Amino acid sequence: MFVRRIAVIGTGYVGLTTGACLASLGHDVVCADVDADKVKRLTAGEVDILEPGLADLVAEGIAAGRLSFVLGAANAVQHAPEVMFLCVPTPMGVGGVADLSIVESVVEEVRELLPVDCVVVNKSTVPVGTAERTEELLDRADVAVVSNPEFLREGSAVYDFLNPDRIVVGGRQQDAAERVAALYAKLGAPTVLTDAPSAELVKYAANCFLAMKLSYVNAVAELCDRLGANISDVTEGMGYDKRIGQAFLQPGPGWGGSCLPKDTSAMVQLADAADFEFRLIRATIDTNTRQRQRMVEKVRLAVTGKRNGSLSRRKLALFGLTFKAGTDDLRDSPALAVAALLRQAGADLVGYDPALKPETRHPDLSSVTVADDPYEAAKDAEAVVVLTEWPEFRSLDWSRLADSVRNPIVVDTRNLLDPAVARRAGFQWIGLGKP
Ligand code: UDX
Question: Which of 9, 268, 270, 338 is 20 to 30 Å from 394 at the Cα level?
Answer without folding.
Answer: 338
